[in-house]
Amino acid sequence: MSQIGRPSRILDVVESQNPDTGEISYDSIATLIIRFVGMGASQNTAAGAHGVDDSTLAYWKQRGFEERELQRRENKVLDETETAYVAFSENVVRAEARGLMWHELNVRRAALSGKEQGGRLSLEFLARRMRETYGREVAVKHDGAVTVTHEIEAKIDCEIIELEQQLGLAAPQAGENGGPAPRLLAAGNGDEPRPAGA
Q1: d(CA 152, CA 139)
Q2: Cβ(79)–Cβ(7) under 8 Å?
Q3: Helix locations, 75-149, DSSP H
Q4: Which of 10, 135, 155, 170 could bridge to 164 as Cys pair (CB 3.0-4.6 Å)?
Q5: Is there a contact between 183 and 161 (Cβ–Cβ < 8 Å)?
Q6: How far apart are the C-alpha atoms of 28 and 12, rounded to whole Å?
Q7: Is the pLDDT of residue 187 over 50?
Q8: How far apart are CA 168 and CA 162, in angstroms?
Q9: How many CA atoms, within 13 angstroms, populate the side-chain half-sphere of residue 71?
Q10: Can you list the alpha helix ranges (DSSP code H) found in 43-79?
Q11: pLDDT the model gives residue 128
Q12: What is the SS3 assignment for 110-126?
């Protein structure tokens, strides 16, 4: 399969810094994308970080699958660039599986050691990346309108305020006598916000 136009960047060598070790290396863009995918980055994010857009990433993978198929069917001898496409398309899939497997094993390690926090973060990562397998979404069938009560809205408002304070995004305001300000909760019925507990 010949490509018309400018040469592919799949073999371009660039400088990169390992985010875990800080070590500088010189590798092909394809190798770097595979490395970062293996560390848990999505294919599109890893490619974008190295100047490869989504359509180019899709082309590289598709071209690799096509070249591999021609090699199998017609016993085609691949040149260096064609071999790079094949290696990329196969290795990026393996790297993604390795990155996900690391998180799956981390959940297991955390469960065995009793240290839940790392396992919870990995489980959250898996739930976002592999919704159909690890997601906690529940399909609810109903007839009619769904109404959210003001108690639920109030609870959500409180949790948002607490998270903002924990992250340093919102400074608590002083209330009477220098104490903490009362939290305002949405009334849920179009009324003005009301203090918590009112």
Answers
A1: 19
A2: no
A3: 80-113, 116-129, 131-134
A4: 170
A5: yes
A6: 5
A7: no
A8: 10
A9: 14
A10: 43-49, 54-74
A11: 83
A12: HHHHCCHHHHHHHHHHH
User: What's the token pair of residue 66?
Assistant: 């096509």
> Is residue 8 helix, strand or coil?
coil
Please state whether beta strands 24-28 and 13-17 pair in parallel, antiparallel, or not at all (unpaired): antiparallel
Nearest CA among 66, 108, 114, 56 for reference residue 86: 66
Assess contact for 64 and 87: CB atoms under 8 A: yes
- Contact yes or no for 74/24 (Cβ under 8 A): no
C-beta of residue 158 within 8 angstroms of C-beta of residue 150: no
HSE, CB side, 13 Å, CA atoms: give it for residue 95: 21
Determine the Cα–Cα distance for residues 152 and 189; give it in Å rounded to an integer. Answer: 12
Nearest partner of 98 among 35, 49, 17, 177, judged by Cα:
35
Is the whole-model pTM more than 0.90? no
Q: CA 90 to CA 77: how far, in whole Å?
A: 17
Closest CA to 90 of 65, 124, 55: 65
* Nearest residue to 1 via CA among 54, 62, 87: 62
The Cα–Cα gap between 20 and 43 comes to 18
What is the end-to-end Cα distance of the chain in Å, rounded?
72
**Dihedral over Cα of 127, 100, 60, 11: its sign:** positive
What three-state secondary structure class fits 35? helix
